[in-house]
TrEMBL record:
This is Sensory box/GGDEF protein. GO terms for biological process: regulation of DNA-templated transcription. NCBIfam families: sensory_box. It comes from Brumicola pallidula DSM 14239 = ACAM 615. Residues 13-79 form the PAS domain.
Length: 159
């Protein structure tokens, strides 16, 4: 094996390790919405191993996700090769993961921002979409507390 081939294998290995350990959920779906990649973040928060979810549809594993809404959201990503987003203000969560800081956190579920990106294959076709799931619980909780304080302050000023 040449040094360049070995270097490529080593680089591929650490890149895969990075995808597994990054503090962001990464899910890759094909055009049939079957899960192809399920990283460590998703495993930790869902309790489902990659081997348990790979090849299954997102909707069979998470029946509370509106199939019609989700497909409409992702259609433009597949067809137009654009990014799409869902913020916690629009929809508090896509995946109903419990808040993993139950003692210090006040929220029952994890608030999430989601971004969708087209993955272009070697043939130039978009046959997969990458979904990134960001934990926004701390930001959402802080904003909710700030709004509650503003309401409380307005009520006190009116009295």
């Amino acid at each position: 094996m040449s040094n360049s081939a070995l270097d490529e294998i080593i680089e591929f290995h650490w890149m895969m390790d990075m995808l597994q350990t990054v503090d962001v959920g990464i899910v890759v779906l094909n055009s049939n919405f079957e899960i192809k990649v399920w990283n460590g973040f998703m495993e930790a928060h869902s309790g489902m191993l990659p081997s348990d979810v790979r090849g299954k549809t997102l909707f069979s594993l998470f029946p509370y996700i509106s199939e019609e809404w989700f497909k409409r959201k992702v259609k433009a990503v597949f067809e137009l090769r654009i990014r799409a987003f869902v913020t916690w203000e629009q929809r508090p969560y896509l995946f109903k993961f419990r808040n993993f800081r139950p003692i210090t956190g006040t929220e029952l579920f994890m608030y999430q921002n989601i971004s969708f990106s087209a993955l272009v294959s070697a043939t130039g076709e978009v046959d997969h979409v990458c979904m990134m799931v960001y934990d926004m619980t701390d930001a959402a909780s802080a904003k909710k507390q700030l709004l509650a304080l503003q309401v409380q302050q307005n009520e006190m000023q009116q009295n």
